[in-house]
Design goal:
heterodimer; A: about 270 residues; alpha+beta; Peroxisomal Thiolase, Chain A, domain 1; 4-stranded mixed β-sheet; disordered N terminus; B: about 140 residues; mainly beta; 1 helix; 8 strands
């Protein structure tokens, strides 16, 4: 994996450019320029997800709290990304089982339905992309998934967003239409995505604060929440959030080059 | 003579004219003879119209910073002495975007859309890197 990420390009190593952190940082910097997002937005994502992780005994950062100052005082890795803009490095595994709704009815665990699915891959390499600040594939994939699920964005009760970096959450939610470009910091302000917030995001702590299992961190959390198996972090009255009927999950590949959106529904 | 410790470009048949141009202090890009699209990286067909017929042109060396980042960590030991350093994607006046470094100014003076021009860094007898500085 590391070798793959480090050898994606051809000539950029000669200029000291390596790996995913730098390439996502290039996209994030262009976004800062085009619609004024940045660390003031991303701190809400890093800190908000950490609050969820502090309710999740499986999270790598379960016992480590994070304040706004902790985020802002962390060292730069590749500016504009600080340490806590980056996901964790994890060993472990995740799985979920897909079967027919008919078979699932007889299983011990309460099933969850796949209500909608969308995919869009507007792939271009960062070097040649003229739309590095989006829209990413989340825009078209999200619309397709909502259409298939026959609901609107207002029916989404929580999101589990692929979060290799804080900025990935920022641009993905923007491309889904939860807020307009330029409204980024305002939308996240006041605990929007945190326990007690109006749109919970990455309720396990996500890849930033629970563990990095690629697309399976978001999707397994969506499934578990709808099954009602999330203990202290369970969405509903105990975390001051809406009891979820529909949870939107995303996966993302390359350098924001492809997106899959899946809408899970309580059976 | 000191040994050059940084990675060197993986030069192939497609990219050789570009890197030979750099040695001659000329920025050379492929231009499609059908639709006129100027491309980077080099390729056997035009990414816009799939035409094979291509001519190499020499760019004037002027452009703007499309996006940039500042490395505070050396993922390769050869760059330890350069920290912090700027990696950028520069958009040339002729159209193509390319990876490069912004030099000749402080890292906090770089901004998106900043006007820049090419400056040649002869890092070895065989390799010249095109870098950019503020105009």
């Amino acid at each position: 994996m590391m070798t793959m990420l480090m050898t994606l390009g051809q000539d950029e190593e000669a200029f000291g450019h390596f790996g995913a952190t730098g390439s996502y940082a290039l996209a994030a910097r262009r976004a800062m320029h085009e619609f004024n997002t940045g660390p003031e937005t991303w701190k809400h994502i890093a800190v908000g997800q950490r609050k969820w992780a502090n309710l999740n005994p499986l999270a790598m950062t379960y016992k480590r709290t994070m304040s706004d100052d902790d985020y802002m005082n962390a060292r730069w890795l590749v500016e504009p990304f600080r340490l806590f803009d980056n996901c964790l490095v994890s060993d472990g595994g995740r799985a979920y089982i897909v079967t027919t709704a008919e078979r699932a009815r007889d299983l011990k665990q309460h099933p969850v339905l796949i209500a909608g699915l969308g995919q869009h891959n507007p792939a271009d390499f960062p070097q040649s992309a003229t739309f590095l600040a989006g829209p990413t594939g989340a825009k078209v994939a999200g619309e397709a998934a909502l259409r298939m699920a026959d609901i609107t964005r207002d029916d989404i009760d929580a999101c589990q967003i692929y979060d290799c970096f804080t900025y990935t959450v920022d641009i993905t939610l923007q491309d889904y239409g939860f807020f307009k470009p330029g409204e980024n910091a305002d939308w996240f302000q006041g605990g929007t995505i945190e326990p007690g917030g109006r749109m919970p995001v990455n309720t396990s702590g996500g890849q930033l604060s629970e563990a990095y299992f690629m697309g399976l961190t978001p999707i397994t959390e969506g499934v578990m929440q709808l099954m009602g198996r999330c203990g202290e972090r369970q969405l509903g009255p105990q975390t001051g959030t809406k009891e979820p009927e529909n949870i939107l999950c995303s996966d993302n590949g390359g350098i924001l080059q492809c997106n899959t959106t899946i809408i899970l529904r309580r059976a | 003579m000191t040994t050059y410790t940084k990675p060197i470009p993986k030069i192939n048949a497609d990219s050789r004219p570009f890197w030979e141009g750099c040695k001659a202090h000329e920025l050379r890009f492929q231009k499609c003879n059908k639709c006129g699209h100027v491309r980077w990286p080099p390729a056997i067909i035009c990414p816009e119209c799939h035409e094979e017929d291509t001519v190499w042109i020499t760019a004037a060396g002027h452009g703007r910073v499309y996006t940039y980042i500042v490395y505070h960590i050396a993922y390769h030991p050869g760059f330890k002495g350069d920290l912090p350093y700027v990696v950028a994607i520069v958009e040339l006046a002729e159209g193509p975007h390319m990876f490069t470094n912004i030099i000749g100014c402080n890292t906090d003076e770089v901004y998106c859309d900043m006007a820049v021009e090419v400056v040649w860094d002869d890092v070895t007898a065989e390799l010249t890197l095109p870098k950019f500085k503020p105009v």
